[in-house]
Amino acid sequence: MTDWQSLLNPEQLAAVTASDGPLLVLAAAGTGKTHTLTYRVAYLIEKGVAPQNILLLTFTNRAAREMLERATRLAGPAIGSLWSGTFHHICHRILRRHADKVGYTRSFLILDRDDANGLINKALKARVSDLKHFPKKEVLASLIGKAANTQGDLREIVENTTFNDPVDPEIVLAIARDYAEMKRNANAMDFDDLLVLTLKLFEEHPEVLQEYSMRFVHVLVDEYQDTNIIQARLVDLLASHHRNLMAVGDDFQCIYSWRGADFRNIMDFPKRWEGCEIIKLERNYRSVPEVLDVANAVIAGNPDQFQKTLRAVRDSDQVKPLVSFLRDASEQSKLVIRTIQRALQSGYAPSDIAVLYRSHFHVVELELDLRRQRLDYTLTSGQGVFESVHAKDVIAYLRLCSGGTDEFAFQRMMALMPNVGPKTAEKIWQKMGGQFNGALETDRLKLSSLMPKKAQEDWAVIDHLIGEYHSKDLEHNGNRAVSSFLDTWYEAYLRRNFDNAEDRCDDVAALAAQFERGKPVAEFLYDVALMTNVDAEQARAMDDVPGIRLSTVHQAKGLEWPFVIVLWCNEEMFPSGRALKEGDDAEERRLFYVAVTRAKDNLFLCVPSTRKIAHNGGTLYLKPSRFIKEIPNELVSKRYGFY
């Protein structure tokens, strides 16, 4: 028999050896959540529960594999018959046996994103004649997916979404109905259908629900705070017979409402599961006490939560987190780089250091400076500044404006025009004689005359912008050139084509702010070309060498680093101004808490006081974040200016 007491702390032991019945384990950051879940599985098997009567639900296949590998080492190979995996994996397994009850055959197909978007596009083209002024397939897919995952009303979602052109909700509803019918006719399900149809199966066929609710004597759920309304309902149904449900999560780390996670699931768990036991894991094995003191102070401002206090297992290192008040983005970038260099000199490896931020556009200036300093980094939050589609579009526009023959920029800009495919673009290029100089009015007039009818309106706007670029000498005001392109045409293009258009617009605006007034755009483009080519060579040469990590806080959840730097701890930045308008102060505070609790040894918080405004090159004065103001002075060290 395993000596569980020697392997677990008292709270973990209580969770692992809990008696039958509903159990909510509130596992605060760094308290051994995975450790506890794994040992609970092993404990149940040692106690005599057959592995095939245990269901373990996770949010990633990696988490499921990791827990199974650990549990196998404890309980032996018999654990292989345990049902484990993501919600979608388990639902797929169930539907393969019962698809006929929800209108499919058991040999149904699962659509990948491209296949699903292709069907939506087919429905779109059948319903809409003016495709230019209607949301593209990716945007429609996002709207339909949001309605599915939140069990929300698609009409309301459409009515509450910002579009550049008026969008009739009835047409979107018709497209959604056509899409659903095409899936049924093709015997195909998309990713969301796996959840939706399993719930439908259980609710409309109680005999099927009874089969699974009786089979699973114990149901365990990881990251319960991230469940959406469908997932929570599925869990409740699957555990309804035996009532042995162990939900493990942390309400302090519920940060994914934008993708359907419902905070109420974990907060209302004791109401839905009357008589449930609640165990709190508060012993933190990750961070020094000084970091945890700041984390506790930050999260205390949220009243609607299960109160927990992180307690450090590690000894103090007598170094308080540092709050640095700076002039602007440039000073922040310089200080971060100097801090990184000092950390490297003191013995930290590049992979020990992470720079975190609320939104991707917050890191544009720093990424450029890291490239200039030849400091290797890994970008977790998406593509690098100049690898993103929207940045490449902007660079192509500037290259086309700058004059001279540039076939690559020409072809990329043509691809943005409606009804202009690669073959049409190539024909136009040939008719232009294999050249186009935006500085020459004759070239611009000739190109306008060659545009297909459906592209003429859009190109007229671009043509006017190229003309202004030269007439107003925007070659020496790249900020205004990019801002005009964004405001006049490109923002509308992004909103029609991407469901995350606002984030892309923020990225472009941040890119515009990088231009120094008076510095030629051509010089900036040369710098970009040189930096990206050197980076590509370094990436090939150092493919397996991890560098400094740059990441949004959302994508840093579940990770940890000895040295953590957080950028732009300002009102309207972190917390996000957009989130505050939507009333999400509480979730923003939880997000800041997640950022703080990623740090093991050192925490560095940056608070610039000004920010460039991309649209007019002016200066925006910023206030320190409310989260910074709420930290008691005695818990942090404060410094002012670049040092």
Quote the distance from N terminus to C terminus: 59 Å
Q: What is the percentage of strand-forming residues?
A: 5-15%
Provide the helix percentage: 40-55%
SSE-based structural type: alpha/beta
So how many helices? 29
- The average pLDDT is 88
Low-confidence stretches: 533-545
Our Rg estimate from Cα atoms comes to 27 Å
The biggest beta sheet reads:
7 strands, parallel
Shape: globular
Strands in their spatial order, largest beta sheet = 13-14-12-15-16-11-19
Q: How many β-strand stretches?
A: 19
Explain what the structure shows.
Helices cover 50% and strands 12% of the residues. With 643 residues, the protein is α/β, with parallel strands linked by helices. The strands form 5 sheets. It has a 7-stranded parallel beta sheet with strand order 13-14-12-15-16-11-19. A 6-stranded parallel beta sheet has the order 3-2-6-7-1-8, sandwiched between helices. The model is unreliable at 533-545 (pLDDT under 50).
Q: What's the gist of this structure?
A:
With 643 residues, the chain is α/β, with parallel strands linked by helices.
